[in-house]
Amino acid sequence: MFVNFYELLGIPEDSDTETIRRAYLRAIREEHPDLTADDVRGESRARQLNSARDTLTDPKLREKHDAHVRALRQRQETQRQVEAQRQEAARRQQQAAAEACPIAIAVERRPKEMEWLGQR
Fold it and tell me: What is the pTM assigned to this prediction?
């Protein structure tokens, strides 16, 4: 699974090397396996933090990571657009079905508009 190292360190994507270093040191102090009660979780987190520092301080690795981040965002945006289109199509289909069948409209609006019939 892809880990966004910027989010892991809590820094913006345009951070300089010094900001990355400070964020790494702050995070590693909190998550170091020798300092946490949960050694397994702390060790795993420390490995991720070390990878984040190594990747973001190396220009070539950082460019590859940034390309993955951009691709992930593009995929997420495409998925949001597809979902919005799907929901709009479902809404239109439901609206068309309701317009094609006046009884369905009456049933939907029965409590207020059908009171004159004495039905509820």
Answer: 0.66
The two three-digit tokens of residue 65, written as one number: 């990571």
In a domain, 106, yes or no: no
Instruction: Record the tokens describing residue 54, joined without a space.
Output: 């190594």
> The domain spanning residue 27 has which CATH number?
1.10.287.110
Q: For residue 86, give its domain range.
A: 5-92
Tell me: the pLDDT tens digits for 86-103?
Answer: 999 999 988 887 777 666
- Is the torsion defined by CA of 41, 67, 69, 87 positive or negative? negative
Phi, then psi, of 48 in degrees rounded to 5: -60, -45
Is residue 27 in some structural domain? yes
- CA pair distance 52, 24, nearest whole angstrom: 8
Whether 15 and 6 have beta carbons less than 8 Å apart is answered as: yes
Q: Is residue 12 part of a domain?
A: yes
Instruction: For residue 66, name the pLDDT band (cuts at 50, 70, 90).
Output: very high
Total domains present in the chain: 1
d(CA 56, CA 13): 10
